[in-house]
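Here is one chain, start to finish.
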Amino acid sequence: MKWVLLQSFSFAYEAQIAKSQLHAFGISARIANEHTINMDWLYSNALGGVRLLVLESDFEEAKKLLDQDYSDAVDDVFNIDHPKCPECQSTEIIAYTKGKKPAFIVLLLFWFPLSKLEHGYRCQSCNHFFKL
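Its structure:
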């Protein structure tokens, strides 16, 4: 039986998560370069990352399993409602801190933080800032 490279990761924990997912579906997998990169993560790019290997006969099935996105299923199971922008009702919002640029400039000039920051959300569609 021949082991083939399924996917390469920058960090060992990412490979461990993928390996666990494959094992849950009964697919044998192993990880190469994990300990070397854990000892010195700067070797990651030089070694081609932490490599997830599967048997050649399981390659196609394993590839399909790792390519699936379960994020919507998790939202449905836990009834997670994503916040919406009050202006345009878009769900494309990000956490945003208002006033970071002026605070940074004041810090550079006076070496003391004198600006007020507001934490909230910003809509990526219409740039509206709001708090929940």
